[in-house]
Amino acid sequence: MIFADPFFWEVVISGLLAGVMYALVALGFVLIFKASGIFNFAQGVMALFAALTLVGGLDGQLPFAHLINWVLGTEWHHWYDPPADEEGAPLWFVLLCISLTTAGMIGLAWVVVRVVFQPLVNQPPIILFMATIGLAFVLEGLGDLMWGANVKVLDVGLPNGPSDTIIDATGMFVEKLEISAAIIAVILVTALTMFSQYTKMGRALRAVADDHQAALSVGISLETVWWVVWSVAGIVALVAGIMWGAKSGVQFSLSLIALKALPVLMLGGFTSIPGAIVGGLIIGMGEKLFDFYIGVPYLAGATENWFAYVLALAFLLFRPQGLFGERIIERV
Amino acid sequence: MLYREAGEFKTTYQADLATFPISFDRWAFWIATAFAFLVVPWFLDDYWSEAVFLPFFVYAMAALGLNILTGYCGQVSLGTGGFMAVGAYASYKLMTGVPWLDMASITILSGLIAAGVGIVFGLPSLRIKGFYLAVATLAAQFFLIWMFNKWGWFYNYSASGQISAPERTMFGLAITGAETNPAVTYLFALGFLFVFAWVARNLVRGRIGRSWMAIRDMDIAAEIIGVNPLLSKLSAFAVSSFYIGMAGALYFAVWKGAAEGTEAFPINVSFNVLFMIIIGGLGSILGSLVGAAFITLLPVFFKVALVEGMGWPTDIAQHIQVILIGGIIIGFLIAEPHGIAALWRTAKEKLRLWPFPH
Description:
The complex is a heterodimer. By secondary structure, chain A is mostly helical. Chain A has 13 helices and no strands. The chains are: A mainly alpha, B mainly alpha.
């Protein structure tokens, strides 16, 4: 019996936890898509950029060091020595860096909305989508130019390694980091739901998501709402960047997880926050199970590359708006 | 002054529907074509052929294909890289399996195979629309690349997993392989681009092209007035994949000579081709060509200008180039969302009146 197999449960749990990581990225997409109809391809690069900035701050790196050194002929690399005790950076310093990075992401959101999306109001969705790809290029280049293109280690003091208690109790191998990711995701989703249900700004956000023009006519500032949405998406990107960065190092491939978030979105529906979570869990679990039971034994392995897309595709054939998406009504 | 419709009398329907209704345009087009076919080959060296012209021809072909699907039929696709890979691997299998075929037949057959694969991956478009479809085409991209990497039959079980083109000829001249003359490969690729751009131009203004545009503008309305959505969408996928597959075959066999699935046809290729048609102009044949020229030549230009011209370190120049390309794309979208082709149309309107304002 397949369910009695401890491997099965280990694969399921590691898949679910990987799914949480996908869902973290997918959340940022959903927020922006709901509020502005923009399919933000740059979400993954935003996560990378946020993580790079955080690492840069933690290491005390001088931004644009390469460029400055080349122009001025100097040899600067750091502008301060980060404080450290035997455990790595102390907590207050980590928190300081995180809040500075958050401020940076909010500033970035303002620039993006003002410079890129204000002039593009009322353009068709494909144009906005292409603009976000352009934005992804700019952020990618900027991140490399500011902080250097090498792989960096991100250590914000999250627990690492397999959890001993779970191994002792059940014999299963579960990463502590992924458990903390799941906890953080729960906190994040709760906070986002509270924000959008119980605050004035949250109500404005939902109004804009419902109908731009009606929201404008009752005096909601579209610009402010978009800025807030992009800031929140930036913060979600920072969280995703921290988790993925702590898991596999901060490097360019981080921006590609955005692509993995897309089937998650298709499955859950582009406009639904619970959809992003459920979609993430299904995809994470599905691809692990498929690779374990079918991919490795019968196909050539590494099916994780495409399984998520094919699953989402097959699913959409039966339900074109995704699991929780709004019903598509078409009129002539 | 020069650019005038005055004195152009159209006496037949053919003249009325001509692609270049103004004789100045017609002359400029034929002179440019003659220049490209007859003069340029004499002055080509390997650098110009490999770094400038072949990339442009290959990507122009791919952009034509994607523009048929996205620009004319309105189905956004991110699977271009995958379909190019189909063309490349099909041409490799044909070259090694059927050695007596000449290169032109190989290229066209590879296109046809890609068209078949395109129809299969186009089937979901009957149910799925918009961004959902775009993401669904990613399935094609990732699945196809994975298949070409993992299944040994496709690369003839070579140890490196690479495919490399053996020598194939046309009219006794080597088109692929190590011993090629830059002028020959240039003329081969240019000839393909010229013929198939002409075919595309005539497809899109014929019955089939009009059915694509009807589907693009509003598929339900098109269905009501009697356009068959199944046939239109699948034919758009087939024709588009045919072009993209030929581009893949040219890329692998004529331009690079060797390829490795993941490195040669990553998802970035799909995005680049999408950039080309958006910058050039959705739903415009001229736009596909201009966009392809723009996106393939910009990095070459930056490399020459920044690294060789101004002596910048390579890595800084590389990063700044990425930023600049992103910035230029955003700038273009803000300035003219309908692409360079729309700018060109406006310029022509202005030229007609110049120097008088009315």
